[in-house]
Amino acid sequence: MTRHQLQVVFSRPIDDWSGQGQTLRVFLNLVAPHLPYEVALVDTLHPSNGLVLYWDMQDYCRMVGRASQTSIVWIGGMQPPDFWPGEPLPERLAPLKDAAMGVASGNGLAMQLEVLLGREVLPIAHCIDLETFKPNGSRGKDIVAVSNNVNNTNGWHYGVDRLKATDLPIRYIGWHHDGLAEKVPHGQMPEIYRNAAVFVRVSRHEGGCLSRCEALACGVPQVGSLAGEAESQINGNGVLLSQADCDDPKMLRWAIESVAEAAGDVWEEMSKRSRLIAVSRYHPRQVVQGWQKIFKKMKRL
Description:
The chain has helices spanning 19-31, 57-63, 107-117, 153-164, 189-194, 210-217, 230-233, 243-246, 249-260, 264-282, 284-300; strands spanning 4-9, 37-42, 51-54, 71-75, 101-105, 121-124, 142-147, 170-174, 196-201, 222-225, 238-241. With 301 residues, the protein is an alpha/beta fold. It has two domains: 4-125 and 283-300, Rossmann fold, CATH 3.40.50; 142-282, Rossmann fold (3-Layer(aba) Sandwich). The strands form two sheets. The chain has a six-stranded parallel sheet with strand order 2-1-3-4-5-6, sandwiched between helices. A five-stranded parallel sheet has the order 8-7-9-10-11, sandwiched between helices. Helix 6 (210-217) packs across helix 10. The radius of gyration is 19 Å and the shape is globular. The two termini are 22 Å apart. The mean pLDDT is 85.
């Protein structure tokens, strides 16, 4: 099989504090080896006749003058104030309209971006290392809230403000420089999830939400808001709340406690359902097939 060149452009270090860095690490380790490409990770665009995959849309927007018709832009968890569906396109995102192809983390974000950009955006699921992120067969005790979008301070504050109003002992994990959360290396996250009785994340918009995908893989039941991808990730494995219910501390507290303190057999069924959702959507094999379809489509453009 002929292997063509694929440049993956990412200008920042692949560190433990950025969801984009974490997803890129998994892509390079579990997805790229199964693609018909010689993959080169670069921090800036180099002359090439091959495909170019920008892992950070901001890199693409900065380098758009040098981009080619072979450019694919990965769009991760864009959150407020990055955009609101129905509002004018922010000037800094305008270059995305001219990319050969846009790829977004999840169906919900892809559909919203299609409306915003007036062009096709293809969905792709996060790839999760299901051997690392897996259940341990028992219920933890923690209520865990996690954010891995280091740039989404406003969205993080929105959720934290509502969760704090419940007066529950919630463990906040995040990579924001605001003193609101523990800064935990990504390698320790599987144990964090396995020590949880419930994963909770409330927001007004969600893309693929890497932390929720990882928690699902670890079999953690969920509480979330009726927003974006969460609508398909919480189905028989927790409680999905309306925005109005998220704004009501009593209702939000009830939802969290009803999952965390559910009867043993009920909690176990929710846990199994969470793991099943993760395996059916985020298995490397499924994600590789998704990327293969995207690259095939690129060749037909």
